[in-house]
Amino acid sequence: MNRAFNRKKDKSWMHTPEALAKHFIPYNAKFLGHTEVDQPKGTEVVKDAVRKLKFQRHIKKSEGQKIPKVELQISIYGVKILDPKSKEVQHNCQLHRISFCADDKTDKRIFTFICKDSESNKHLCYVFDSEKCAEEITLTIGQAFDLAYKKFLESGGKDVETRKQIGGLQKRIQDLEAENSELKKQLQVLEEQLMIAQVPPGSSMSSKTPTDIFDMVPFSPMTPLVPLPASNGSAPQPPAKPTEISKDLFGAEPFDPFTCGAADFPPDIQSKLDEMQEGFKMGLTVEGTVFSLDPLEGRC
Questions:
Q1: CB of 272 within 8 A of CB of 278?
Q2: How many helices (H) and strands (E) does the chain have?
């Protein structure tokens, strides 16, 4: 673990060990950004990074962009960079990956540290602007290193190894969760394709006969009544004809005025009807008044 800080050996620490070991020390600063560097430490290395990020920030400022403000949470476990309003963690720099930290003696507001990225294994230099606390923040990170190193010696290195294993397991869990989410999406697509393949062609496009408010098929005099097919799909059975015509209590067949014609009446009834018809044609005399069915002859 490299510890390189611009501080005097006899300078006392500013915070209690419990504050950094069990909690964290918060600071507010402006974040100029981070850039890749070739070396894990060195004053000239961070000076080049500061000049580069200041130039980039000057261009963005001329375009109307402001320097973003961040919150730093420093503890023996690392330095977290958060959004001051939402508290969302933007960067989590573990302490054992920080190899160099220093404040700029020419510009008292600037401080930096170099951290090795956990994914790309590249060395990144983080640059901050704090009007009053640049040196204090640098010393707080130095105190966190000192306490972490003492804890490392007391535990025989087991604590650092445990944190590394936990970090590796956490990353593995994130990868498995992402893989699980992707597999769920693929499974959903396959289920949808299987459902489409099981639907017979044309079944979903079959037209449905419109019904009225009582869920009955409306009657149309233009279309003949066709018996509907049975539920099992077989052809409907023709209506069965009665084998024996029922008779009334006088032994006569029932009279149906809608189906029977003139030739269907018995001879005696037919003759009576003929006589009545002739009588109506000739006219009836009632108390001396003649009525005629002929509209041209009928007068009162």
A1: no
A2: 5, 9
- Cβ pair 46, 32 in contact under 8 A: no
Output the CA angle 122-85-123, nearest 5 degrees: 5
- pTM exceeds 0.85: no
Question: Amino acid identity of 9?
Answer: K
Cβ–Cβ under 8 Å, residues 270 and 260: no
Residues 155, 122: contact at Cβ < 8 Å?
A: no
pLDDT on residue 131 = 86
3-state percent helix, strand, coil for the chain, nearest multiple of 5: 35, 20, 45
Taking the C-alpha atoms of residue 118 and residue 66, their distance in angstroms, rounded to an integer, is 29
pLDDT for residue 150: 87
Q: What is the DSSP letter of 96?
A: G
| Closest by CA position to 101, among listed 70, 146, 137 | 137
Q: Say if CB 138 and CB 101 are below 8 A apart.
A: yes
Q: What pLDDT does 266 receive?
A: 62
What is the CATH architecture of 17-155? Roll (2.30)
pLDDT along the chain (300 residues), means of 10: 43 83 93 94 93 92 91 94 93 92 89 92 94 91 91 71 72 84 88 80 56 64 56 60 59 60 60 68 50 48
**Domain segments of the chain: what residues?**
17-155, 157-195
- Edge-to-edge strands of the sheet including 89-94? 89-94, 78-82, 69-75, 25-37, 123-129, 110-116, 98-103
- Whether the Cβ atoms of residue 189 and residue 181 lie closer than 8 Å to each other: no
